[in-house]
Structures are given as C-alpha cells and as structure tokens.
Amino acid sequence: MSAATIQKKADVLVVGAGIAGLQASLDLADQGKQILLVESQPSIGGRMINLSKVFPTLDCASCITTPRMASVAHHPSIDLLTYTEVNKIERVNGKFHARITKKPRYLDETACIGCKRCEEACTTYLPDEYDHSLGAKKAISIAFTNAIPQYPVLDMDECLLCGACAKACPTQCINFMQEPQEIEAEAGAVIMATGYNLTEISAKKQYGGDKYPNVISPLQMERLLAPHGPYGGVMRPSDGKIPDSIAFVQCAGSRDKSLGVPYCSRVCCMYAIKQAMLLSGSLPIADITIYYMDIRAFGKGYEQFYQNAKAMGIQFVKAKVGRISEDENHNPILRVERQEDCSQPEDVTHDLVMLSLGMVPAWIPDRDGIIPLEIGEDRFVRSVNEKVTPSLTSMEGVFAAGTMTGPKDIVDTIVEAGAAATEAANYLRRQEGR
Amino acid sequence: MEEEKNTQSQENESEEIRVGVYVCHCGGNISDVVDTKAVVEALKKKPNVKIAKDFVFMCSDPGQKLIIDDIIENNINRIVVSACSPTLHETTFRKALTRAGLNPYLYEHVNIREQDSWVHKGENEAATAKAIRLTAAGVEKIARQDPLEPIVVNAEGHVVVIGGGVAGMRAALALFKRGLGVTLIEKGDRLGGRALELDKVYPTEEKATDIVSQLENAVRSEKLDVRLNCEIEMIEGFVGNFDVQIRDKDSKIDKVRAGAIVLATGFDHYQPYEGEFGYGKSPVVVTLPEFNKLIADMPQSDKFTYKGKEIKNLAFIHCVGSRQVEGVHQPQADGRVNEYCSRVCCTATLHTINKTLDKFPNLNIFDLYKDIRTYGHGHEDYYEKASKRGVTFFRYTDDSIPEYAPSPNGSGATLTMKDVLTWNEEVSIPADMIVLATGMVPREISNLVGMLKLPTGTDRFLQEVHPKLRPVELANNGIMIAGTCQGPMDITESCAAAGASAAKVSILLSKKTIEMDPYVARVDEAKCDGCKLCLAECEYKGALFMAENYAHVNPALCVGCGACVAVCPPRAINIAGWTLDQFDGMIDAISMEELEPAMVPA
Amino acid sequence: MEEEKKLSYTEQIKELRARRGEGSKEKQERSKEQIKAQKAILAVIDKEAKTVPEIAEATGMNTQEVFWWITAMRKYNKVSDETKKGDYIAYRKK
Ligand SMILES: Cc1cc2nc3c(=O)[nH]c(=O)nc-3n(C[C@H](O)[C@H](O)[C@H](O)COP(=O)(O)OP(=O)(O)OC[C@H]3O[C@@H](n4cnc5c(N)ncnc54)[C@H](O)[C@@H]3O)c2cc1C
Ligand SMILES: Cc1cc2nc3c(=O)[nH]c(=O)nc-3n(C[C@H](O)[C@H](O)[C@H](O)COP(=O)(O)OP(=O)(O)OC[C@H]3O[C@@H](n4cnc5c(N)ncnc54)[C@H](O)[C@@H]3O)c2cc1C
Ligand code: SF4
Ligand code: SF4
Ligand code: SF4
Ligand code: SF4
Ligand code: SF4
Fold first, then answer.
1. I want to staple B488 with a disulfide (CB 3.0 to 4.6 A). Which of A134, A384, B343, B357 is the partner?
2. Which CATH number is A8-102+180-195+362-434's, of 2.60.40.10, 3.40.50.360, 3.50.50.60, 3.40.50.300?
3. Which CATH topology does B270-440 take?
C-alpha cells in the first residue's frame, strides 16, 4: 500500500547525477531555471567521486567533485531525488511527463541525521559496490564518507531482519515496511546524462578477468589508489601482498570487434598512465609496465603527462598480450608478444595486473526503455547534428551530455554538459516564445 | 543563489570574537602526515578560539554541517578551516557560512595540504608543527576581519565575440538565442575560419562549407551584429562593463559596450621551417592542409600527377610540429618546443589518405607515425579502412625520426628510419611526394593578450582557469574562450566548447548586476596625507585617483594587487580582507617561538 | 505508510520474516558463518599481529577470504594495521 503519488514540476528534468548531470544542472539553475535532478544511486557524484586522482592535474577526485556535489545539493533551484528510478518519459503537447519511482531506503529521510549508528550496529557484511567489491559494507550503510545525501540504504534482500539497526537509531526513523514512492513530474525539457559502464571483465575469455583475483578492473585500481581506499594502501586482493611488479594491459575491452567494441575508449590510455604514476609514487621500487598498441594522449596537457610518466621510469612496452594465466600463488602470467626488440612471445609474471577495460553506455534506450532515443552503431545515444550541436538527440527537447554519447574524459564531459545546458535553455526560450 | 542571506546583524561592534577552527583529514591526504588531533589540541589553547575540531572530509555535507551547527548553536562568528587549497573550497565554505546566516567573508581558508602534508611526506612532526603555525596565523587573520559586502556592478546584456570561425559563430548564435545582444567581430572578409579550407569532414562526411553555411545562415537570419574585416583596437573596463573599440578596414573606430567577451580566435597551421623533411626545398614536400587543397578539385583517375610527374609512392609523416622533444627537435621562435599533441592530425591524415585512395586507387601510400591517435567517434574506422586498403604503416620513435634525402634525380626522396613494427629494422621508403601532418599553433593575438593581460600556457594557447573543472573560463573575470584558441580540437569539440562558454556568459549576465569579491584597496581618508606616491604604482587605469586631497579607489577597476599599499608612508591604504594589521598578526603567529613539545602531544 | 509505521519494530520484523518464509533461515545461516569467520580471525590476531598468509595458515581459511574479512574489520574498527612484515602488513585486533 503506497502513499499518494507526488506531483512535481520543473523547467528541466536531468537524469543522472554524475559530473555531466551535476554540471548541466548547475549551469541551468544558475541561470534561474528550476531543475529536477534524478539519480538512481544512493549518492550523487557518478564515477568521478569514485576515482583516486584525476589526470592530468592529479587533483584528488573527491576534493574536486564534492564542491560540485555540495553546490547542487544546496541549490535552491535544484530539486534532487536520489536512489530514484525514472520509468518513462513521454512528450505530450510539447511538455515532458515523467513517471518516477523513489526506491525505499527503509528509513524516513526527513528524520535521519546520518549518524551511522545503524551501520555500526548491523552485523550483516556485504561486498561494497562503491569499492567494486574489494571492501565490505553492511546491510544498512551510507554509500561512502562524502556521499551526498548522507542517508543510509537498507538492503532488504540481504537484511537479516534482526532489528539491531532500529534499536540503535536515535531518531527511530527506520521503517522496515517502507514502500516505493511514486512521483509524476512535468518538465519543459530533458537532459539525459546517464554515463557509462565498463566492458565486462569476463568478456575477453583469454584474460580470465573473472577467474583470477589479481587481475583487476581499472575502477578497482582507482580504489586501491584512493586515499580512503578499502585496503588503506596498494595491495593485491588474493592475499594482501604489496605488489612489486604491476602490469597494465591496454585496449583490453576496446578496439576489438570480437567484443562488439570496435572503437577506442579514449580515456584508458590516460587513466593507465595516471595510475602508473600514482603507483610509482606510493610504491617507489615497484616495476610498472604498460603493454599497449598506441598511446592516445591527445588532450590538452596529456602528451606532457605521458612524457613525465616515461621520465619517471614507467615501462611502456609496445606489445600484444595474447592471454593471461596464473601460477599457484595467484601471480598472473602474461603471454606477451612484443613488437619492439624481439619477436618471440614470452611469458612474464607480475604480482598484479590491471585490464584497461573499455567504456559502454550505462543506459541503452532500446534495451532499458525510459525514452526512445536513437542510438548509433556503437550503441551510444546518437547526435543528430554531431558537428555543430553535439548534444542534440533525435527527440526534440531532449539533450544528452557526457559519456552517454560516447567515451570521454571529465573535461570533455563538463564542456558537453555546458553545451547541453545552453541548448536546453534556448529550447525553453523558443517554446515560451511560441 | 542562497535562500537566506546575512540575517545575523553585525551592528554590535564590540561583539566578542569567537573563532571556530576545523581541521580536515582530507581522507588521509592530510592526516597521514599531519597529526590533525594535535593541531586541534594546540589551537584550542589560542586566544579567541572557542571551538576546534577535526573531521575526515570537511567539504562533505556532514563536515559543513559541523560549521553551520556551531555558528547557530555556539555563536561562533569567525571560521577557520585548515584543509586543501582555497582555490578548491573557499567558496564551498563561504556558502556554508551564508547558509548559517554569517557574513561569508568572516572565513579563512588555511592550506595544510598542498603547502604542508603533500610536500612534507615522512616529516610528520615538522609538518604537524607547520600546520599549527599556519592555522594559528589564520586565526589571527580572521580575528581582525570585519564583515565585508561584495562589490556590485551593473551587467550590460551584450556580448562581444572575437573571431568568426565555427566556434565564434556557434557561441554568438547560442548567446543571441538566449536573448543577449551580440557583436561578432571577424578580421577576415568572411565567416567560417579554417573550416573553409576543408572539403568533407570526418566523421560525418558533411561538406565543411555546408557546416559553415548552416551556421552563417543562422547568424544572418538572426540579424546578429556581424563585423567583417574588423579588429579590436582597444578594450577597457571590467566585467559587466567592457568598452570595446572596433577598428574597421578604413581604420574607423566604433565603440560597443559589452558585459562579457568570448574569445574564439582559433588556430594557425604549424609552418615547417625551411628544410624540415625537405619542406620549402623540394616542391614535392607539402603540408597536409596544402595537400588537402591540392586534391580537393582533382577528378578521380588511375594516375596521380603532380607538377607534371606521376606520383606512385606517397608518404605521410605524422606529428610534424607537434609532440616535439627538447634536444631532438629545433625549438620555436620563443625557444620552446611544441610538446603538445595536436589532436586532430592523426584522424585528419587517415581521413585524407582514404579520400586520396578514393580518387587514386592505384597509389602506394606509406604512413609514418609515432602513435595513431584516432580516439573519437568514428575515427578508428578511417584507420581500419586505410589498413585494409593496403596502406603501409611504419612506426618511428624520437630516437629515429625519419631522415629525408632527396633523390639524385631531384624528383622524389627517400625517407630512412628504424621501424618499430618490424623490430627496429632500418627501412628506406621511396617517396615521390611527401605530406607533412602539421599540427596546430595558436593564432597571433599578442595585442589582445597584452591588452587584457590574458593568461597563456607553455604551449602558448590561452589558458583556462582549471583544466578539468572550469575549461571555458579565463582567470579574467567576464572573459570566456571557445574553440581552438584554447588548444587543438575538431569542429565538434570547438562547437561544444562554444556552447559551454555561452552557458557561462548566460549565467554571468542572467541578472542585471554582478557581484564581485571585495578584496580591493580602501583608503583611510583621515590618514592619507595626499602625497600621491601610490598613484605612480597603480597599473590599472582608473583604479586609483586623487580627489579632495586624498586618494580614492574605484572598486570595480582595482584588482587588489596591493602595489599602492606597499608605498604608502602613513599606512593609509589597505586591501580589504588583507590589511596590514592582519599581516602583522599572521606573521607574529607564524614566527611564535614557544610551540612544540608543550603543544604537540606525543 | 502512516498506519504501517505504527506497527512496532517487533511486529514489522515478524511480519516480514513471515513473508520471507524459508529465505529467513538461509540469511541466519549466513550470519552465523560470518560471525564464525570473524571470530576465527580475531582469535589469531588477538595477542600478536599477523599477515594475511599467516592468518590463513592458522585458521585454514583461504587468503582471499581472510583478506576480505580483514578489510571489512579494518573499516568497522575491529582490526588495525600494525607493522609491515616483508611484502605484507601485519594486522592486530583492536
Ligand atoms: C578507471 C577510470 C579512471 C578515470 N580517470 C579519469 C581521470 O583521471 N580524468 C578524467 O578526466 N577522466 C577519467 N575517467 C573518465 C571519467 O570517469 C568520466 O569522464 C566521467 O566520470 C563521466 O561522467 P558522466 O557524468 O558522463 O558519467 P557517470 O559518472 O557514469 O555518471 C552517470 C550517472 O548517471 C546515473 N544513472 C545512470 N543511469 C541512470 C538512470 N536510468 N536513471 C537515473 N540515473 C542514472 C549513474 O548512477 C551515474 O551517477 C576515468 C574513467 C575510468 C573508467
Ligand atoms: C588539416 C586539418 C584537417 C581538419 N579536418 C577536420 C575534419 O575533418 N573534421 C573536423 O571536425 N575538424 C577538422 N579539423 C579541425 C577544424 O579545422 C577546427 O576544429 C576548426 O576549424 C576550429 O574552429 P575555430 O573557430 O576554433 O578556429 P578558426 O577556424 O581558426 O577560426 C578563428 C577565426 O577567428 C578569426 N580571428 C582570429 N584572430 C582574430 C582577431 N584578433 N580579431 C578578429 N578575428 C580574429 C580568424 O580570422 C578566424 O576566422 C581539421 C584541422 C586541420 C588542421
Ligand atoms: S535488521 Fe538488517 S539492516 Fe538492520 S541491523 Fe539487522 S541485518 Fe542489519
Ligand atoms: S541510525 Fe538512524 S538517524 Fe542514524 S544514520 Fe541510521 S537511520 Fe539515520
Ligand atoms: S584509449 Fe588507449 S587503451 Fe583505451 S582503447 Fe584507446 S588506445 Fe586502447
Ligand atoms: S594527433 Fe597524431 S599526428 Fe597529430 S600530433 Fe597527435 S599523434 Fe601526432
Ligand atoms: S591595489 Fe593595485 S589595482 Fe588596486 S588601487 Fe592599489 S595598485 Fe591599483
């Protein structure tokens, strides 16, 4: 039995609160537009808040993301819904109608003070998706230290129903019987900013990413390098060993027709270089090798970043990695076919290996519904005027920003978010003029 | 932007100073080196400090809430946060003060990360002592701070866009549609910029002229104020109120008042020096833009003839004028090499190669590269297609840059290099013609750079405020950038940047007025003896002047540089928020003697 | 929602457990396993700091599982890093 449907109204509905959605919302709200921003995760911030430091400035990611997150959360013109799904968006008489469901956190957000007592009391441990399963969380937990908002989510599927959290909660705000809240919203325009996922680590069978504990994903490597990471330092998942020899395998999920990802994912060269630099900072004596086809350091200041990495002693080896296996101590063994110096394939053993996985869209209209936007061959949402107005989608009044239209780094995402905000504002003005 | 503002009254002059100190762990960025608890304990002992706390992420919501609660519940009226660089979070915390009803300028941000924990790794004790001194200085400074009010200036709802390439047109259109007045200034005799040189463009294969016409038609039909054959004579004024003097081709000057300026002055092609891979010496060595122009109108044929001779072997060399390495490449006029990658030339080259093969399917094409950077939407397809069509790729390194040797008969050349793809085998590539994939350099705009004191990077392109977070703003208030004046980009990226800069201008000019930080000079008229020494120091026209026998400041023009302060004998001038009194207090705190053992608990 | 909130926590839990049926047991089993694993590890590092391979050896659990629990207990303040031993960190009960 759920409560009555809530009605909301806004100038622009923004879907997804990664850096693209945050920036687009701010750029519109600062012009006086009313925004309804919907995020499916418990916290805003998207992938960026999950990173260690960012290339090429090496600013700590959480330090530069939290100000944006806080500005959005406190903006009087931005109505923020987290842990909320958009089910359907329809265009009716030039207006957009959205059906939205706020998922139950199993607590009353107006009463919760974010004290974490519930989390301390809970005895059910689960893999923490924020740390990409490297670390643990509880069945009731706040997503991460600087999450916004600071409300926990209770995972009803995993909860033991022991009641410890409710007993510990000083405000009595936990409600095990909470139901989803239905919301209907009307908006003049829509910005989609649903971001990306990584290609599956299991996709390339010969790399065994799903079988070998010390063959990890790039986002796991980000967590190992983050100041607040799960291990409190760089260690490998199989046994907590501090690695002496770390390898990066480039294009491990991109530029590969057999994976259905023929395109270049555009950021993986740079994040690998960044991670290698950070590793050599925290493990000065470790051997760090990057196996690559081409280093694509094309952005402003990126080539210089690459040259710095070379000067720091990071090994760049132009080679193909044919397959990966492991020895009895879970040391990954790479079959390396070098293109320089020697032509014989050789087996090289490392302590820890990161696969530079590629980027694929997180939301695909014809797979996931919501709103029927046209997509391109690469399955990213297609721009109908790519050269001049990249944020224009196939539906009038719907704009796209960030990695949902194709792989890109943070700065290109922010630029595109600003462009989408401009288009949305001008579209609204045209509509009003009619 | 905020709901409530400065509700707490500050009338009570003799109000007790109650400082709250908050020390941030920054995850572990700070607390792994600085003993934050020790800093808190030391600061608690300082006069005026009523509360001192540490927290894992001060900038997070719970962190900010600590401050807000203390202001409201414990009557704290001055705040010091010791954390990261103020460029990151000063505004975050100011806004928190505003939300709590406190004047936002009663806030001091102390940097114990970049200036302490990050540079003193492994010296934990000394770093902790330094953090204590720096924080104590912050307390002394803020204890001497009065509430300040932002400077409010009028915002003219008009924008001047400089440069009429795709980026400039795109920005101008977006701004005009937003309801702002726009003047678009182009020094050439038509709109379109470098895109006019292109034939079909990657990856959409649209004709560049169609893209330009699409934009130009929109610009024309919107009745935007377009000035062709015009250049900037002079720009004076400040954000919200720039006076722009425009000189036309008859040297007549016209004046436009603008609230903001968008720079979209674009790029130039890198010009190889004479002899660079034979350029300028041999007629068969051309640059990529020259080659594009050359083949644009050639009909399809089974033979490619150039200067009366059949070309059978055509070689392309990447990275000419880009990705240069000091000691390997000849430096540019300013003594620096072009370290940057020009971003578009790899895809542009492979695009051209495919186009060339469409026309001349029998050509042998060699591609000499360092890395193939076909990163963007549809780019990789050109690379793959070229490989499939039999283009031979050679990969060179900085240790083995292709060596050019003209053929004895003078008609072609040989390129010699070590090829990484065949395990460093030395190869000699016969080429009847050579195309140099030249990169981008910024256009010559030194007059604008000088006039507006624009920041440029080591790559000579205009330098944005923050390369990640604020990519289309310059440090100069009210001046945005769009397109390739900032760095290499393709048309899509230039247009996106133009859209983003239009958003920033729209925000700036969305209200009738603009608020600016009040850190400007203030003259104590009672102390000023009218010596005029300060006037000679001020570099900012109109900022400082004499009237009624004492110095006056125009707060909108003063940049708060402090040059005048330094020369004033009776200490009559002060920068608000950075007074001499405050400096004295800070210096005393930093140089205080008694500190360590007693104050730093083990 | 209002009426439901009036149910006491005991009533809420009873009701939900009933709805869950057999599933409840599974969760309780898992909880026991989790508590057992933590106890086993904590017992080994109660007096003396040990590395993950050492704990695995002593408890008979595999290293990956031990490390995951160490990570979990570090986060929730039951275990702290002690010293570096070779290429490993030695952990100790808090
Ligand atoms: C390992 C790694 C390291 C990187 N390092 C760097 C770096 O150092 N520097 C750099 O510039 N870039 C880096 N990047 C790239 C960077 O992560 C992206 O450019 C950026 O995060 C993209 O932001 P976004 O907002 O487009 O997408 P996201 O961050 O993915 O945000 C999308 C948001 O939308 C939400 N969402 C999705 N679907 C829905 C839905 N249906 N309803 C509601 N919400 C939804 C998601 O939950 C998410 O919060 C890195 C990438 C990786 C993989
Ligand atoms: C060989 C080559 C091939 C390319 N191929 C493609 C392609 O296929 N697809 C693609 O997307 N991109 C391509 N590009 C990139 C594309 O050319 C640029 O992205 C685009 O032209 C940049 O536009 P802009 O407006 O930033 O600069 P510009 O085109 O340089 O325009 C700047 C304008 O400002 C004017 N100006 C300069 N200074 C002043 C001043 N002081 N006062 C007044 N006016 C001034 C100039 O006269 C000019 O009109 C290619 C580039 C090269 C070099
Ligand atoms: S009821 Fe569930 S969430 Fe609450 S403490 Fe028990 S297991 Fe954890
Ligand atoms: S214990 Fe209660 S108030 Fe505290 S975080 Fe948990 S639900 Fe919120
Ligand atoms: S960015 Fe680098 S690693 Fe990623 S797909 Fe492109 S070339 Fe491969
Ligand atoms: S885009 Fe390619 S050719 Fe151009 S500078 Fe970069 S690597 Fe060299
Ligand atoms: S502070 Fe600088 S700009 Fe301001 S009046 Fe003094 S000298 Fe001029």
1. B343
2. 3.50.50.60
3. FAD/NAD(P)-binding domain (3.50.50)
Residue B4 has pLDDT above 80, yes or no: no
Task: Write the residue in C1, C15, C31 that is nearest to A3 by C-beta.
Answer: C1
**Cα–Cα distance for residue pair A355/A172, rounded to 1 Å:** 45
Average pLDDT over residues B415-419: 94
pLDDT digits (tens, 9 = 90+) for B350-375: 999 999 999 999 999 999 999 999 99
Give, for ligand 5, the residue of A199, A221, A255 to mutate: max count of ligand atoms closer than 8 Å to Cβ.
Answer: A255
C/B touch flag: 3 or more CB pairs below 8 Å: no
Q: Which phi and psi angles does B395 have, rounded to 5°? A: -115, 125
Q: How many angstroms separate the alpha carbon of residue B374 from the centre of ligand 5?
A: 10
- CATH homologous superfamily, domain B158-266+443-514: FAD/NAD(P)-binding domain (3.50.50.60)
* Cβ within 8 Å, pair A67-B88: yes
**If you average pLDDT over residues B226-250, what whole number do you get?**
96
Which chain B residues touch A412 with a CB distance below 8 Å?
493, 496
Q: Is the CB of B148 under 6 A from ligand 7?
A: no
Q: Where in the sequence of chain B do the CATH 3.50.50.60 domains occur?
A: 158-266+443-514, 270-440
Q: Is the pLDDT of residue B62 over 90?
A: no
Q: Which residue has the higher pLDDT, B592 or B109?
A: B109
Q: Average of pLDDT values for B86-105?
A: 91
Domain extent, residue C29, equals: 8-93
Exposed/middle/buried for A379, CB within 10 Å: 0-12, 13-18, 19+? Answer: middle
Class of residue C8 by CB neighbours under 10 A (exposed 0-12, middle 13-18, buried 19+): exposed
Domain ranges of chain A: 8-102+180-195+362-434, 104-178, 200-358
Q: For residue A115, what pLDDT band results from cuts at 50, 70 and 90? A: confident
Chains C and A are touching, with contact defined as 3 or more CB–CB pairs separated by less than 8 Å? yes
Please give the distance, rounded to the nearest whole angstrom, from the Cα atom of residue B257 to the centre of ligand 7: 24
Q: Does domain A104-178 have CATH number 3.30.70?
A: yes
Q: Which residue of chain A has the CA closest to C88?
A: A241
Ligand 3, atom nearest to A174 Cα: 4
Chain A closest CA to C94's CA: distance in Å?
15
Q: Which residues of chain B does CATH 3.40.50 include? A: 2-150
CB contact under 8 A, B506 and A430: no
d(CA A264, CA A268): 9
In a domain, C42, yes or no: yes
Q: What is the CATH number of the domain that holds C12?
A: 1.10.10.10
- Decide yes or no: CATH 3.40.50 for domain B2-150: yes
- SS3 readout for B489-542: CCHHHHHHHHHHHHHHHHHHCCCCEEEECCCCEEECCCCCCCCCHHHHHCCCCC
Q: In the 8-state DSSP scheme, what is residue B149?
A: -
Q: How far is B378 from chain A (nearest CA, A)?
A: 7
Alpha helices in A30-75 (DSSP H): 61-74
Q: Rounded to whole angstroms, how far apart are CA atoms A378 and A307?
A: 31
Whole-number Å distance, alpha carbon B374 to ligand 6 midpoint, is 9
Structural domain includes residue C60 = yes
**Atom number in ligand 6 closest to CA B349:** 3
Q: Tokens representing A221? A: 């490597």
Facing A176 at nearest CB: one of C12, C56, C84: C12
Q: Ligand 5 pocket, A255 CB below 6 A?
A: yes
Predicted structure pTM score: 0.92
Q: How far is the CA of A193 from the centre of ligand 1 (A)?
A: 9
- The answer to whether residue C17 is domain-embedded is yes
Q: How confident is the model at residue A359 (pLDDT cuts 50, 70, 90)?
A: very high
- CATH code of A200-358, in short, is 3.50.50.60
SS (H, E, C) B379-439: HHHHHHHHHHCCCEEEECCHHHCCEEEECCCCCCEEEEEEEHHHCCEEEEEEECEEEEEEC
